[in-house]
Design goal:
- The structure is a homodimer.
- Helices cover 34% and strands 25% of the residues of chain A.
- Chain A is α/β, with parallel strands linked by helices.
- In chain A, β19 (374-378) and β20 (381-387) form a beta hairpin.
- In chain A, the strands form four sheets. In chain A, strands 3-6-2-1-9-11-12-10 form an eight-stranded mixed sheet, with helices on both faces.
- The two termini of chain A are 27 Å apart.
- The first copy, chain A, has twelve helices and 20 strands.
- Chain A has helices at 18-33, 48-59, 65-72, 74-89, 121-128, 154-166, 199-207, 215-223, 277-287, 316-330, 357-367, 391-401; strands spanning 5-10, 37-42, 94-97, 104-106, 115-118, 132-136, 139-142, 147-149, 170-175, 196-198, 228-232, 240-243, 256-260, 263-272, 295-297, 304-312, 334-338, 341-347, 374-378, 381-387.
- Chains A and B meet through α1, α2, α3 and α4 of A and α1, α2, α3 and α4 of B.
Chain lengths: 409, 409
C-alpha cells in the first residue's frame, strides 16, 4: 500500500477531555501505522476559547485585538501539546508546534487574520524524520511577528491551507457530525449523507445556513483543488468528500437544502425612484461592514419604490441607524424591520444546466400554502424568504419534492 | 521627581483572579503615573501551572519535557494578556509579550532552562514609546527556537535577569508575604521584618529552608549587583531590599534563622576506613542527581567509620538504592535512614568577622536540652540537625538567643 501525506484536523469537541484526546490519539496512530505521514491540526479543547473570551470580557469589555490573540491562541497550544504527549505515551514520535513556530504567516489583522503563506521547512523536516506533527490550529504569526488568530472555525482553514502548502494527498476534517447531509438531520429526519459534494455546492449551502465547515477553508480548498474529507471523529462511518467535480456520471439536480433563521428583513419604503439610490444605500451599509444578502426592489407606483433586503440579525441596530440616515436624506417614507423570517434554499451544481428548478420550487411551496416574501437566485441555488414559523415546513417539503430523501450520496 | 526604569514581578497569587488582576493593574498604573517606565513580569494565575501539569500527567505520567514547556508556558501568556487588557481599560498603553517574543534566550534544557541572554531591542522600543511592557515570566526561547521554561519560581529569575539586561534602577518582586523576616513568621510570632538583607544572607537562608525568593534569581541579582525589593502585592507596607552590602554602620551578627523538615539523614555504617571511599559514595550519588547537604564522618573505631549525610526526602529511595550498592561493594556494615530530623540554621554576614557564634549556638541548644545530631558550617551560617519534634523549639530559642526579636531591620 502506498504511503500518503495526510493532513487531519480534529475539532474542539473531538479533543474535549482526556478520554477524547486518547481516542483521537488512537485514531491518528492507526493511520500512521499504515505508513502514512501525518500532520494533525487541532482546535482548543471543548469550550476553552469561549471561556478565555469570557474571562477577557470580565476584565475589559472591549479588549484590544492583539491581546485577545495572545490570550486565545493558548487554547490550541495546550491541546496540541497534550495530543503530542498522548502519542508519545503510545510509543510513537510526535512534536507539537504553535502557528508561529510552524511558519503560518498571516496578515496583521488580529482576530480575523488571513493566511499569506506557510513556510513548510520545519514541518517537512519533522515529517521526514518520521514524526507525527501536531499543529495548533486557528493561529499564525503576522508579518510583524505578532501572534494572530484566523477567526471562528479557523482551524479548518489552518488544516486546508497546510494541506495545500505541503502538497498533501488529502485533507481530513474530523468533526462531531458524520459528513455533509442533504439537509440538517436535526430538522429533516430522513436527510441523506452525501458521499461527495462540490466545493461550489458546499459554499452555497454554507452561505445559506449549513454550518459544517468554515467557508474560508472551503474557498481555499476550491482555489487549490484540495479535496476535503469531512467525517466523524466518533465513528468509523464514511464521511463526505468535498471536491471539484462529482464523480457520478449522472447527478441529481438539487443536492441539498438549507435553512437559516438568523436574518432579518429590512424595508425602506417609498424611496424616490431615481437612478443611483439603491447603490448609495448599499455602499453606505458596506462601509459599516454590514453584509447584505437578498435585495428586492418592488414594483414602483407613483415614481416611488420599496427596497427590501436581508441582514444578519446581529447587524439590525447598525443597519437601522444607517438606513434611517439615508431615508431622511433622500426623502424616503420610512423603515420597517421584520425579524420573524426564515430563508430556505435549494442548492445543486446541476441547476446550471437544468431549467425548471425555480418553477418547481415555487409551485411546491405554493402547493403547501407557504407564501414567498422574497426570492433570490444564483447560478446554483434558489433562496426564498418565508414567515419564520413556516421555515422548517418549507425545508421539509422541498427536501421531499427534489427527492433528496432517496438520493444516492 | 526623577523618572526611573523599574522591573516589577507579580506572582501567581497576586494575579489569582479577575479582582486581583485589577488590583495589580491599579498598582502598576500608580507607578506609571509617577513618570516611571515599567516592565512587568507576571506569573500564571493562581494554580494554573499545577493544574496544567496534572492534566498532562493524566495523559502521560512521563511527558516529554519539550511538550511540557509548550503546555505550561501558556499559563503566563494568559495572565500577561489579561493584565495588558486591564491596563488598556484604564486608558494606559500596554503590550504583552511571551518570553520568546521578548527575546529571553535560554539554553536547550527544557523545564529547567538557564537564561543565556536577553535581547532587549523590542522591549526598549515599546518602553520608549511610553508603553507599559508586560512579560510572561518563567519562560524563554532556546537557541533552537523552542519554547523553554525556567523551573519552579522561574518568574523571579525572569524579572531579575530582565532588570539586569535593561539596566533597570530596581527590580521589585511583589509576592504574598511582606518581605524577608528574621524567621518564618508562621512559626516565630515575634519574627521581625528586615529592611535590608545581603544577597549572601538571602542565599544562605534560602538554602536552609526559607522559601521567599527563587535562589537562582538571587544569584543573578548578586552576580550583577541588581538590588531586589521584595514586598507584598496586597499591602502598602515597606518590604525588604536584597542588596550587596547592608547600609548599616554596625550590624547584628546573626540576621535570620531558618528551619527545614524536608531532609532525611542517611548513615552508612561500618565503612572500612580507607582513603577515597567517601569520595566514591558522593560521586556515585551526584551522578544520580542526588544533592547531598550535610556530611559527617564519625570517629572511627576498629578501622571502621560511620558516614552520615542528609538528602532531600524525595530522594530517599534513589539514595538508598545507590548507597546499598556501594555498601555491598565496599563491605560496609549496613544503611540506616532517619526521616524524623529537622535542620535549624543561623545566618548572618557578620559571622565572617565575629567568633563565638557557633559556641553561643551550641550552648543555647544544650541549655534547652536539645541534642545536636549533626553540625555543618559555612562562612556565614551554622546548621544543626536535631530531632524533628524539637525543630521548632530550637528555632525559637535561637531566634531569641541572638536577639532577633529586637533587631532593627
Amino acid at each position: 500500500m502506498q504511503s500518503k501525506l495526510i493532513v487531519q484536523k480534529y475539532g474542539g469537541s473531538s479533543v474535549g477531555d482526556v478520554g477524547r484526546i486518547e481516542r483521537v490519539c488512537d485514531k491518528i496512530i492507526s493511520y500512521a501505522k499504515k505508513g502514512n505521514k501525518l500532520a494533525v491540526v487541532v482546535s482548543a479543547m471543548g469550550d476553552t476559547t469561549d471561556e478565555l473570551i469570557e474571562l477577557a470580557k470580565k476584565i475589559n469589555p472591549n479588549p484590544e485585538e492583539r491581546e485577545m490573540d495572545m490570550l486565545i491562541s493558548t487554547g490550541e497550544q495546550i491541546s496540541s501539546a497534550l495530543l503530542a504527549m498522548a502519542i508519545h505515551k503510545r510509543g510513537h514520535e510526535a512534536i507539537s508546534f504553535t502557528g508561529s513556530q510552524v511558519g503560518i504567516i498571516t496578515d496583521k489583522y488580529h482576530t480575523k487574520a488571513k493566511i499569506l503563506k506557510i513556510e513548510t521547512d520545519r514541518i517537512k523536516k519533522e515529517l521526514t524524520a518520521g514524526k507525527i506533527v501536531i499543529v495548533a490550529g486557528f493561529q499564525g504569526k503576522s508579518t510583524k511577528s505578532e501572534i494572530t488568530t484566523l477567526g471562528r472555525g479557523g482551524s479548518d482553514l489552518s488544516a486546508v491551507a497546510l494541506a495545500v502548502a505541503l502538497g498533501a494527498d488529502m485533507c481530513e476534517i474530523y468533526t462531531d457530525v458524520e459528513g455533509i447531509y442533504t439537509a440538517d438531520p436535526r430538522i429533516i429526519k430522513n436527510a441523506k449523507k452525501l458521499s461527495f459534494i462540490t466545493f461550489d455546492e458546499m459554499l452555497e449551502l454554507a452561505a445559506r445556513g449549513a454550518q459544517v465547515m468554515q467557508t474560508r477553508a472551503v474557498e481555499v480548498g476550491k482555489k487549490f483543488n484540495m479535496p476535503i474529507y469531512v467525517k466523524s471523529s466518533f465513528s468509523e462511518k464514511e464521511g463526505t468528500v468535498i471536491m471539484d467535480k462529482l464523480p457520478h456520471i449522472e447527478e441529481s439536480v438539487v443536492r441539498g437544502v438549507a435553512l437559516t433563521e438568523n436574518e432579518a428583513k429590512i424595508t425602506i419604503c417609498d424611496v424616490p425612484d431615481k437612478p443611483g439610490i439603491a447603490a448609495r444605500i448599499f455602499n453606505d451599509l458596506a462601509r459599516e461592514s454590514v453584509n447584505i444578502d437578498m435585495i428586492v426592489q418592488n414594483v414602483s407606483h407613483k415614481k416611488m419604490t420599496d427596497i427590501s433586503f436581508t441582514v444578519p440579525k446581529d447587524k439590525i441596530a447598525k443597519t437601522l441607524k444607517v438606513s434611517k440616515k439615508i431615508a431622511d436624506n433622500i426623502g424616503a417614507g420610512g423603515i420597517i424591520s421584520d425579524e420573524a423570517i426564515a430563508k430556505v434554499s435549494v442548492v445543486g451544481v446541476g441547476m446550471k444546466s437544468q431549467s425548471g428548478v425555480a418553477a418547481k420550487c415555487f409551485s411546491c411551496l405554493a402547493k403547501h400554502k407557504i407564501n414567498i416574501e422574497m426570492i433570490s437566485t444564483s447560478e446554483i441555488s434558489i433562496s426564498c424568504v418565508v414567515k419564520k414559523d413556516l421555515g422548517k415546513e418549507a425545508l421539509k417539503v422541498l427536501h421531499k419534492e427534489f427527492g433528496l430523501d432517496k438520493i444516492k450520496g
